[in-house]
Design goal:
This protein is of the alpha/beta class and 334 residues long. It has two domains: 8-120 and 303-331, Medium-chain alcohol dehydrogenases, catalytic domain (Quinone Oxidoreductase, Chain A, domain 1, Alpha-Beta Complex); 133-273, Rossmann fold (3-Layer(aba) Sandwich). It is built from nine helices and 15 strands. The strands form three sheets. Strands 3, 4, 5, 6, 7, 14 and 15 form a seven-stranded mixed beta sheet that branches. Helix 3 (166-177) links the parallel strand 8 (158-160) and strand 9. The chain binds the ligand C=CC(=O)SCCNC(=O)CCNC(=O)[C@H](O)C(C)(C)COP(=O)(O)OP(=O)(O)OC[C@H]1O[C@@H](n2cnc3c(N)ncnc32)[C@H](O)[C@@H]1OP(=O)(O)O. Residues 48-50, 134-135, 138, 162-168, 186-188, 206, 227-228, 232, 249-253, 275-277, 319, 322, 324 line the site of ligand LGDV7FBO.
């Protein structure tokens, strides 16, 4: 790839016209790329719940059309006008609005801003980076947030909701590796053995979570990582132990939060918001380095499946239906 304008690259594009919104595979010229100072040859992307929403044409993720979805990518720098990166550098990009406000990772080429990129931490591989992806990066930020708020293994069980999903699976593996007693809550009882293999000490069904009947439930969790939101998050807050912390990362079950102030003012429970999209650079690099050091490679491999770009439209339906376990790597350029 020389960067000349007569070259074409393959992309999965979301298009909108009078017939509606749909996904199309297209061969695009370099001139179709958005503005940015750095051209990257994309090797892999990944599939997150948010990508499922975007590729299925659901409202709220893509801010314009046509657009290339894919909120994650890893690849090699082809050229960088700012001088921050050299041709051949291996870089990771998650968040910052790619696959939402500007073109994302489901294409052979991406033009992005140099300050969004993180170096691939050695000795990791590009495939490893996308096995982690936004979901795993979000899980790492949630674990760091609990640690920052003094949640330590001696403070008792840590609850992970949506545990068989991407964020949940990585959170279970990271917490177990750090010595926590993890209770994994899932809507898929058939995944109990899988969750135990990642290190969960207990696996409970979604329906077995403490019901939100009163503002304060029996104290149980030293900490919580929640991808579900809604009544699940409210119930988790109400059953968190005094001075415990809850990291809220998602809304797979709802965006409402039917809670009261009692857990906060009577138990000092801390509710921490996790936003991986705009996470500052020093925190990003620290999180990626920690993932490279502490996320057990065997568990990451066990939770990851690899698919070609062509499979993304079908996989998008599956992730929205709660049928995707763990993480999905998407082969873009190999
Ligand atoms: C991937 C993370 C992000 O995108 S972070 C980016 C910034 N944050 C956001 O944009 C928030 C919006 N994103 C989300 O809400 C994400 O969906 C997520 C953070 C909640 C999870 O993303 P992930 O890629 O891990 O999704 P999965 O589909 O792999 O897992 C979801 C998990 O939740 C269960 N679930 C689905 N629907 C419901 C429901 N109605 N009630 C309860 N639980 C639900 C789903 O089945 C998975 O867990 P399981 O163990 O199967 O119960």
């Amino acid at each position: 790839m020389t960067g000349e304008t007569n070259e074409f690259f393959r992309a999965l594009r979301m298009v909108k016209d009078e017939a509606g919104i749909r996904a199309e595979f297209q061969d695009l010229p370099l001139s179709a790329l958005p503005e940015g100072d750095t051209l990257v040859q994309v090797q892999y992307s990944s599939l997150n719940y948010k990508d499922g929403l975007a590729v299925s044409g659901k409202p709220g993720v893509l801010r314009g059309y046509p657009m290339t979805p894919g909120i994650d990518l890893v690849g090699k720098v082809i050229s960088c006008e700012s001088g921050q990166w050299q041709p051949g550098d291996a870089v990771i990009l998650t968040g910052w609005g790619i696959g939402e406000r500007t073109d994302g990772g489901y294409a052979g080429l991406a033009r992005v801003r140099s300050e969004w990129l993180v170096p691939l931490p050695p000795p990791s591989t590009p495939q490893w980076a996308m096995s982690v992806g936004t979901a795993g990066f979000t899980a790492m930020l949630a674990v760091l947030a609990l640690e920052d708020h003094c949640v330590t293994p001696d403070r008792g069980e840590v609850l992970v909701t949506g545990a068989a999903g991407g964020v949940g699976s990585v959170a279970v593996a990271l917490l177990a590796a750090a010595g926590f007693t993890v209770t994994a809550s899932t809507g898929r009882p058939a995944e109990a053995d899988y969750l135990r293999s990642l290190g969960a000490a207990n696996v409970i069904g979604r329906e077995d979570l403490p019901a939100l009947k009163r503002p304060l439930e029996k104290e149980r969790w030293g900490g919580v990582i929640d991808s579900v939101g809604g009544a699940t998050l409210a119930g988790a807050i109400a059953s968190t132990r005094t001075h415990g912390a809850v990291a809220a990362c998602g809304l797979a079950g709802g965006s409402d939060l039917p809670t009261s102030v009692f857990p906060f003012i009577l138990r000092g429970v801390m509710l921490i918001g996790i936003d991986s999209v705009t996470c500052p650079m020093h925190r990003r690099q620290a999180a990626w380095e920690r993932l490279a050091r502490d996320l057990p490679a065997e568990q990451l491999q066990a939770m990851t499946q690899i698919h070609p770009l062509e499979d993304v439209p079908a996989l998008a339906q599956q992730i929205l239906a709660g049928q995707v376990r763990g993480r999905v790597v998407i082969e873009v350029g190999g």
